[in-house]
Write a structure and sequence with these properties.
Elements: E1 2-9, H1 26-38, E2 45-46, E3 55-64, H2 73-80, E4 85-93, E5 105-113, E6 125-126, H3 134-143, E7 167-174, E8 180-187, H4 194-206, H5 212-221, E9 236-242, E10 263-264
Parallel strand pairs: 3-9, 5-6
Antiparallel strand pairs: 1-3, 1-4, 2-3, 5-8, 5-9, 7-8, 7-10
Helix pairs in contact: 3-4, 3-5
Length: about 260
């Protein structure tokens, strides 16, 4: 039987989702503990490959488990997993649904705070910028759904079959006093470090070191910039994943601010 697991994790201490040699990954921690419970090696497949230090407010993986169980698997797994990984739901699905390839939309949020705050240091990216030009940043964000090819916003575009992304939504939010910023983007797929590269460009626009026209020119010409200013990983969250057959509400989100505190720019 194939099972989808609905989870979230704080990625601060992990080298990303994907299992890699000699580093601590979310996938390896979950696989190790699932295999202990069932006393057999199990391999899980995630809905994406978040970078080192990146978080997930909502994440799915699937796993095939042949044997039946007569205990509360969610309770047992949550009990032995570290505090920074949470299991919310375990969903049996017929056929061969795939956590990664079947996803039709992924939403990400990137959080920025503009003052030093020890309680946000692991949850949001700190940039000591005063009076960012949010209106110009907004103009750049509004361009994103109008273009499809994001070759200029990828660290290794030639490693992909193509660099087309169907960006369905992109918005910029701030708080009333302007010291917190949230960049939201939704697409069917994302390229390597694409959101962090875009965020880096938005910050250049906000600090008046890049124009909106220069930003749009990258979307038009598809030329990879000589310098890729990649924003810190800490503020990036995989916020929601949607499937044709599965669309679950969030069970958790970044808790530094409440949803009502955000104002669209």
């Amino acid at each position: 039987m194939r099972y989808f697991f609905h989870i979230a994790y704080n990625g601060h201490v992990y080298s990303g989702w994907q299992r890699q040699p000699k580093v601590n990954s979310v996938q390896e921690v979950i696989e190790t503990n699932l295999s202990k419970i069932f006393k057999t090696p199990l391999t899980i497949n995630g809905c994406g490959r978040t970078d080192s230090g990146v978080h997930a407010s909502q994440f799915f993986f699937h796993v095939d488990i042949e044997q039946e169980w007569d205990f509360d698997l969610k309770f047992r797994l949550n009990k032995i997993l570290p505090h920074n990984i949470a299991i919310f739901d375990i969903i049996p699905l017929e056929g061969r649904p795939h956590a990664r390839f079947d996803a039709v939309q992924r939403k990400y949020d990137y959080y920025i705070h503009t003052y030093k705050n020890p309680f946000l240091s692991q949850l949001s990216s700190y940039y000591d910028f005063e009076k960012l030009n949010l209106e110009e940043m907004k103009r750049a964000v509004q361009l994103l759904p109008k273009y499809k090819d994001y070759r200029a916003f990828c660290t290794a575009p030639d490693k992909n079959e193509h660099t087309i992304c169907n960006v369905m939504d992109a918005k910029l939010f701030t708080t009333a006093n302007g010291d917190h910023i949230r960049f939201h983007i939704a697409s069917n797929r994302f390229l390597g470090k694409m959101i962090r590269i875009i965020t880096g460009k938005l910050l250049k626009i906000g600090t008046r070191n890049m124009s909106v026209d220069e930003f749009e020119n990258l979307l038009i010409t598809l030329e990879t910039p000589g310098m890729l200013e990649i924003a810190h990983p800490t503020g990036l969250y995989l916020a929601k994943v949607t499937y044709p057959y599965l669309n679950l509400p969030l069970r958790t989100e970044f808790s530094g601010l409440q949803q009502k505190d955000w104002i669209e720019v």
